[in-house]
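ok so for the tutorial part 2 we go from a plain amino acid sequence to predicted structure tokens. step 1 is just haveing the sequence, like this:
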Amino acid sequence: MAMKGNSRWQFIAIGAVVAVLAAVVLGLAFSKGHKDDPKMNGQLPGMVFKVEDPNPQLDPKKPLRCYVNGADVGELTLAECAKKNGVATGALDVGVDDQGNVTAAPTGSLAPVPGAPSSAAPGTPAKVTEPEPTEEIIPETPQATAGPTAPCLRYNSNTWNRLSDNLTLGQCVKQLYDGRCVSPGNASYGRWGDKTLRLVPKRVEVSDDNANFRTLVEQGQGCSVATVP
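step 2 — the prediction. this is what the tokens look like for a chain of 229 residues:
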């Protein structure tokens, strides 16, 4: 009876050893199959969320930096900023200023209107020349633009630079802004005679008093400027 009992325990011991060896072999095989898997930056595995919104929507209730007449008036919601500027919410341009802050302002107000050149101060009409009649009749070509002419200037580096002494309004606008783009919140200024020209996103504006602007012509594809009406 003692021999039979010893044999039984021997079989149990052998079985246990075989089970342990099998577990070790399986463990080595499993680790070998995954040793070439990419590591997660040396960190333990976990849940990873990747959020990408190609068209993020601006929260109308979230405050952002607001400008009125070129002056920073603090952080307000879009509706509050529009009310401060006396315009509809949709009339505000939203962009990023030099410090990376999201800002809202009426078109072009982040680039204050420069003072008129000394030779064309507000209220003093600049010289506008009507085309002189000629005895020879020259047929107009499709590229020709009729109308009065005046000096055309561009405002750049805090200085008014004269581009030409005798251009029509349409020619001046073309020379200043055709194919030129500006980002939201910015503006590019020019002069034609006693009128101030301003390029803002998607359109060219004009002012008779260097303060109140109205749309003169819309910009097309590629920031092109069509014929001025």
